[in-house]
Amino acid sequence: ILATRVPPPAKYGGRHTVTLIPGDGIGPELLNHVRELFRFSCVPVDFEVVNVCSATEDDINNAITAIRRNGVALKGNIETLHTLPASHKSRNNLLRTTLDLYANVMHCKSLPGVQTRHNNIDIMIIRENTEGEYSSLEHESVSGVVECLKIITRTNSLRIAEYAFKLAREKGRKRVTAVHKANIMKLGDGLFLQCCREVAAGYPDIAFDAMIVDNTTMQLVSKPQQFDVMVMPNLYGNVVSNVCAGLVGGPGLVPGANYGRDYAVFETATRNTGKSIADRNIANPTAMLLASCMMLDHLKLHDYATMIRNAVLTTMNETQVSQVLSPHCTIHSPGVYSLRTPEWRSSLRHCISVQEASL
Amino acid sequence: MASNAWRSMVRTGRFVRLQTVTLIPGDGIGPEISVAVMKIFEAAKVPIQWEERNVTAIQGPGGRWMIPPDCKESMDRTLIGLKGPLKTPIAAGHPSMNLLLRKTFDLYANVRPCVSIEGYKTPYTDVDLVTIRENTEGEYSGIEHIIVDGVVQSIKLITEDASRRIAEYAFEYARNNQRNSVTAVHKANIMRMSDGLFLRKCREVAENFKDIKFTEMYLDTVCLNMVQDPTQFDVLVMPNLYGDILSDLCAGLIGGLGVTPSGNIGANGVAIFESVHGTAPDIAGLDMANPTALLLSAVMMLRHMGMHDYGKKIETACFDTIRDKKVLTGDLGGKSKCSEFTEEICRRVRDMD
Name one GO molecular function term (chain B) (predicted). Predict the structure, then answer.
């Protein structure tokens, strides 16, 4: 969306190549659903699969090179084992910082057909993705005393604020709220807030306000409808995006995107490995499918994106589908119809066929 | 007030040792809700006498800001305090009063039980959890530097001692209050060393409390599950920042800061219980305030002191009043005054005897 110099897409013979990183847990099965659906719908996208699973740096470096080559990736979450020493950094984090994917965008919208405690939620969350508490700079100065550095820079704060306001303007949104804790972290979050204010001054058509993070979470569980667009540093973004995902129906429903200047990586918004539900055919493919639609939009394949998105949303809302109940296997999302993944998939293909026929 | 309590003791013929508690009314609506709590305690004939103290920061020798010496002396003697909301003046030159109290008495654990209140409906029902937050270090160490112009670093400090202390408190609390499990909340996948240390200490302490189930969960997973199904959580223990966010999140689940109690436990046996809402200067002095938060904190205090019966009595009266919905203050959806609400609770307490 926000690129001064767009590198040429990895497109040859009318077909795009996209890096696919299956990851751990439910990642592989979700991405299989995506591949199957793309094949069924004849989407002109080829996937270059890169597995990341070893303890060395080679795998992740291969993945990064592949993304540099193709420009776009679709990924599952890579697990970080605590048992390994602290020098083994989170692979997901490494990927984001190396490729400078500075903006994590998540659109939380109440979906029709999903029962939740709150309705009419429509929040865009823009989270700074490279610095803040996730700088991975830690040291043990004295035995038993660990210091962890949280870095906030003017450049990155201005960049993410600029991104947030540009996106708000593009999508016709009215208000941007900065989430911070500047009453305690006066210099760090104070700098972030100041940068947001500076950028806000250049967008007089968009209202800007700020809210402290603990009050924000309290407001989110009582009145989430008051929020429009939210921008925040890394850790608060983690908390707020998970709260919002829970509010609209769970981790299986919300897609997320990581944008940088040159690259874009798409995944589920809450980045769960889902080890406990892996390989049982109950993982909800909605989030990953919607993420793949976001990817298709990014590749300017809007027709395919709309078709698949409509099929997904229709399937969730369709009353016939709710009749096919299976009490033993439920899709792992409270509030969505109890349904085995294979039946859900066949219903989805039916919707796509109907749309294709009408084109 | 003390003489009435003495007279009632003489009448019953039982000698009950009168415990002294330091009361800090606070600012704004603080004084009126403190009066409400004192009235209810009197109606319940709780053997407590109050010592009122003021906390306005004064500058001691050497220019260091501190709390008034008579307040410190009182707290050191009584070891139990009940505090109303304090105003933090901006640009007054001194740190917040809450911070001063925390530093003076080394209040290392902040405990917030969040229980759904029957009668005050929120989208979440059956919430019954406790958040225990490390209150002295972590992200709130206050150590920040400007490295170069435009680059700021904030330091998050995690120490072995503080982590062990809070973990021990959490498990002791779980055992003393018949809770089944303790969950450590962390982000050790990203902050490998710091949260890793916190987690290690929790695991070590868990070894000594085999009767209590110990689990660990990532902060984002906790947030995600909390808003979908808060009933799965019991006792949560965590470092400072996560505790701040999660405790306010849980307060939001049950209805906000106006109905949430809170307690701060310090080293050396000191405990200060407080209401965590603001001073509400717009309704101060108008008899419109809701004393529930301070009252429930006072009930927590009674339980801490071992006076479980009195605590249960007052808590039941308070919940019954709210459930009845006939006499409620403005923020709970009613139209009654603070004094009427207080009187209703007093009436119920007296009827229970």
Answer: magnesium ion binding
Q: How many residues does chain B have?
A: 353
Are B152 and A251 in contact (CB < 8 Å)?
no
Q: Look at residue A191 and give its three-state secondary structure.
A: helix
Residue A21's nearest CA partner among A12, A11, A34 is: A34
* B273/B254 Cα distance (integer angstroms): 19
Mean confidence (pLDDT) of chain B: 89
**Look-up of token digits 């989407």:** A43
pLDDT at B279: 86
Give CA–CA dist A276/A184, Å, rounded. 37
Domain spans, chain A: 10-80+89-101+260-314, 102-252
- B18-110+259-352 fold: Isopropylmalate Dehydrogenase (3.40.718)
Contact B147, B153 (CB under 8 A): yes
Distances (CA, A) of B223 to B170, B228, B245: 20, 9, 10
d(CA B38, CA B24): 12
Q: Which CATH number fits domain B123-254: 3.40.718.10, 3.40.250.10, 3.30.565.10, 3.40.1110.10?
A: 3.40.718.10
CA distance B161 to B172: 16
Choosing among A185, A223, A247, A333, which should be mutated to test the B contact, i.e. which has the most B CBs within 10 A? A185
Q: What is the pLDDT of residues A264-299, one digit of tens each?
A: 999 999 998 888 888 888 888 899 999 999 999 999
For residue A111, the one-letter residue type is L
pLDDT for the residue numbered B89: 67
**Distance, CA of B69 to chain centre:** 23
In CATH terms, the fold of domain A10-80+89-101+260-314 is Rossmann fold (3.40.50)
Structure tokens at A159: 């960049």
SS (H, E, C) B290-342: CCHHHHHHHHHHHHHCCCHHHHHHHHHHHHHHHHHCCCCEHHHCCCECHHHHH
Q: How far apart are CA A332 and CA A272, in angstroms?
A: 13
Distance (Å) from the C-alpha of residue B329 to the closest C-alpha of chain A?
Answer: 19
Q: Which residue has the higher pLDDT, A330 or B109?
A: B109
CB contact under 8 A, B257 and A251: no
Query: Do the Cβ atoms of A188 and B199 come within 8 Å?
Result: no
How close is the nearest chain B Cα to the Cα of A32, in Å?
Answer: 24
Residue B27 and residue B57 in contact, taking contact as beta carbons nearer than 8 Å: no
Contact A281, A342 (CB under 8 A): yes
- pTM of the predicted model as reported, rounded to 2 decimal places: 0.89
From chain B, pick out residues whose CB is under 8 angstroms from the CB of A277: none
Mean pLDDT of residues grouped by 10 in chain A (359 residues)? 59 91 92 93 94 81 94 92 79 93 95 88 95 89 92 96 96 96 90 96 96 94 95 94 94 94 94 87 90 95 93 74 34 43 70 68
Residue A39 is classified by DSSP as: H
pLDDT in tens, A108-157: 999 888 889 999 999 999 999 999 888 888 999 899 999 999 999 999 99
Which positions ≥6 away from B11 have C-beta within 8 Å?
A: none
CATH superfamily label, A102-252: Isopropylmalate Dehydrogenase (3.40.718.10)
CA distances, A144 to each of A158, B122, B160, B186, B266 (Å):
36, 43, 5, 18, 21
Q: Do B156 and A89 touch (CB under 8 A)?
A: no
Question: What ipTM was assigned to the predicted interfaces of this complex?
Answer: 0.88
